[in-house]
Amino acid sequence: MTKGEIAQTKEAYVGEYASGKSEVAINRALWLFETGIRPVILVDLDLVEPFYTLRPLKKELEARGIKVLAWETLNTIGLGETGNLLQPVVRWALRREGAVVIDVGYGVAGIEKLRLLERPAFERESLKIYVVINIARPMTGDVEAVVDYVRALGAVHGLINNSHWGDDTEPAIIHEGAQVVTKAAKILGLPVIWTTVDQKWQKEIGSYDVCGNPVFFLKRYMPRAFW
Amino acid sequence: MSMPAVELEAKTQRKQAKPIEGVKKVFMTGNESVAWAALAAGAEIMYGYPITPQNEIMHYWTRLAPRYGKQFLQTEDEISAGFTTCGGVLAGKRAFTATAGPGNILMQESMSMAEMLRLPTVVIVQQRGGPSTATVIYSQQETTLTCFGGNGEGLRIVYSSSSHQDLFDYTIKAFNTAWKYRFPTFVLGDGYQAKMRESLHIYDPAAKGIKMEKTVPFVGQEGMPGVDRAPAHLRNTFNTEEELLEVITGYVAEYQKIAPEIIEYEVIETADAEIVLVAHGIVARAAWAAVRALRNKGVRAGFFRPITLRPFPAEQLRKAARTAKKLLVAESAQGQLLKLVQEALYGETVPIATYLMPGQGITAEELSDYVMELRSNKTNREGGSR
Amino acid sequence: MTVVPNMPKAWRIETKPHKFCPGCGHGLVLKALGEAIDELGVQERVVFGCDIGCSLLSWDFFNADTVQTHHGRTTPVMTGIKRARPDRICIAYMGDGGGYAIGAQHLVNAATRNEKITVILANNCNYAMTGGQMAPTTLPEMKTETTPYGRDVEETGYPTQGPEMVAAITGETAYSARGTVANLRQLKNYLKKALQNQIEERGFSFVEALSACPTNWSTNAKDTWHFLEETMPKYFKIGEVKVPVKEAKESNTSQGNHTKQ
Questions:
Q1: Reported pTM
Q2: Which of A129, A183, B359, C167 is the most buried (most CB within 10 A)?
Q3: Which domain holds residue A20?
Q4: Taking CB atoms and an 8 Å cutoff, what residues of chain C touch A47?
């Protein structure tokens, strides 16, 4: 992509429940911001748990310069219940200038939530959809399962290996994930965009994973998001 | 949408396959752990009704059920979910349901019937704020309800989980406990555990040498009733006080007899303790972390965690209490665990301080700070309370 | 320059903009209801009850006394208030779960007893607030969180026909109708007739409103309206199912009970 194209990139991170979409989306948004792109917009399209994901981090991320389209804690008091709610501003995310990074929540039809966004008037910009996969989750635990899962999503543009065991992670699961996702990607005819890894593994995991895919090191923000 | 023959064959083969082979380290949410545990335990049918925060148990069950030949029914409400679960066990199947908050209240009627008929029902409860609709998020305010919520003597078995590993282990165990001892069995979790993500080991029970208790139908056994076999005549109603007294006394005796086989708890470093933190469920994790931090500061803190709330490890708590100078009961409720503790300790003189936060989470820092505060307030006042 | 939107007088301006999702049908049903209340001049007498689910977001919606109840229990709470204070205009507002699942027994009994309350039900074919599970009104083959492979009518039956059921079991002085947010004028008229039935102390009144839920249908604007206007009416017939006999006689038309084919 040219610098101009990256500045207008529209990306959606989809994947199974708890696969790591939010963490990847936040880090990606911050990375884009650090390259000098303005504006960078992070969009919370997690509808089932809008109050557990990006909301608690909104103020912090906005202080760093990212525009966050998500509910504010203050506006959620008096709602009566935390639940399935689409914040109106989110619908127009794709009509905005700048780099837009969308965190798409789960559900049987998770990826279909993208249809709730109003598309740009002219399709000069295409929305790139990346599937975040953690093979430590049984539904996407092996090559066959990953292929089945991604096929059911329809048209997507790349896979991301985000395999880990949370605080209990060891390099073995990251490597295994790389192998499984790369193999699945080959079958699907899709690129592996990155292997995403907690930055604490920087020494053990270099710039490329065991299959030669680029590594994107993540700073963990999500532990602060949940209560 | 028809499936190519090859795919259909593969999917049918998966039906015969076990949901989990051996032992596998995974990363998932608490609700998912429950769904996978039920599958691993050989549960055959789930009945349920949507209520936050346990919905993903149903979502994952309905996605996985067809692959393994399991069944599901979404009922019209929780009253029905409880009674259909009773139906499922009456039919001899490993049946279960899951609920929270107001749904838990609605299940009390069916669970009372299960208590009286001695049905091996399994219910997973993910506590949310109370009373009424309150919050969909978290609390430990359904302790009393889950332990004693019916119009009887609370002859139930309740496991309080504090991690995803617990949720997995005890959901499997719940089926065995229920079918072996025939008391309605509950796994008490909460909304934080339900939604939190952490790693755990999921497994095929056989891989760990766990043998699943056989299930036997209460109704629908083979043969002509009255000819080949006696008909099952199940009732939960009696004519006279004497009859009822006899039945209940019998149940109570049996419950007390089996209690030692079922009771589980954790007790750590209470022998020299100046203060013993008592907590259950996810608060026990914070309590344990607080105890370690306090010990590092040179404070002789101890830890007691009841795992079974019913039957309550009373003997074991008394033993720990006798060597302690003080107890601190911490819970995300206004005294529901405290009540169980006080009942167990009747006659003991150890002062009991409390840290009660109905509907709110409790951190290790809060607890260790509070213990330091208690130590510095050298008042004559018995116990300190929050 | 601030443009103050044209809101029904019964609406509480301090709680606007409301919290419903963009494209949600609730806002439209409540607009029709607000206008009906205004045109009938009964705002002062209204007691409004809402259920659990998305309907609960209307707990501070009107300048009218409101009670948010438990799931499915709005009908009995409003019944209780009406019996104790017959001068109040009691409106029970709920979704498909609150009326046809957990609240079904209350709906059936209030209808059978011909309680002089008005029940308004927003039908969007799913349990939205909790994340889109199957509802009694979910359409055949429709995918939801608890029917990930599509609703199998062999296993779970067909979508509930609420107004028809109510019509079959109520007395002659009840009113039962199905409107749609795709035709607000008609919906408002049905709501007015329903409230009129209570104001004139005739009997039970029930209005189901076909409503949109793009958030859980995962539909853009065009597809949302298509589902609402083309698909749903295939399973839910729009129109008055039952008008009170007195009115039928008075209006001199061949209205009255009609059974769904």
A1: 0.91
A2: C167
A3: 3-224
A4: 131, 215
